[in-house]
């Protein structure tokens, strides 16, 4: 099996935006599964990379983004996924984890070509990141129960598109490692 990296996308959120209530409803079920995946990855020596939106603040650090999320509306959804002090952390400004970030370089340094994309939002950042991973010739794994969505129908369509058009392996979280 190729070298794998677990990527946690946009889970450090204050949940203070339009549609946050809909996303929270999905994230509540995702967080325990994602916490289990984080434990499994660390136990298997699989690198974990947190990639998070900077919410338009170009002076943000990983610690500041974490503090902002923990002081937000749902710290209970952030705390179980808290990055360790030495976490690999990439800050992004747009939907894709690759767009104008050093992620590709980090992945090459790790030798990771199989990417497990987790986090939120399935029909937005997960979908766009999967497409960018696909065009970069990475293997893509999407644990369907470890990605949160706003719209059920769009999330289902996004998962189908990733599987069909990008060759993504869409599995349950328990089947990733």
Model description:
This protein has 177 residues and is α/β, with parallel strands linked by helices. It has one domain: 3-Layer(aba) Sandwich (Rossmann fold), CATH 3.40.50. 42% of the residues lie in helices and 19% in strands. Strands 1, 2, 3, 4, 5, 6 and 7 form a seven-stranded parallel beta sheet that branches. α5 links the parallel β4 and β5. α5 packs parallel to α6. The longest helix is centred in the first third of the chain and has 24 residues. The radius of gyration is 15 Å and the shape is globular. It starts with a strand and ends in a 6-residue tail after the last strand. The mean pLDDT is 96.
Report the uncertain regions: none
Per CATH, the architecture is: 3-Layer(aba) Sandwich
Structural domain count: 1
What is the CATH superfamily? Isochorismatase-like
Task: Compute the number of strand runs.
Answer: 7
Number of helices: 6
Output the radius of gyration: 15 Å
User: Percent of residues in beta strands?
Assistant: 15-25%
The geometry reads as globular
Major β-sheet, in short?
7 strands, parallel
Average pLDDT reading: 96
- SSE pattern: EHEHHEHEHEEHE
CATH fold-type name: Rossmann fold
Alpha-carbon distance between the two ends? 10 Å
Structural class: alpha/beta
CATH class: Alpha Beta
Helix amount, in percent? 40-55%
What's the short version?
This protein has 177 residues and is of the alpha/beta class. The protein has 6 helices and 7 strands.
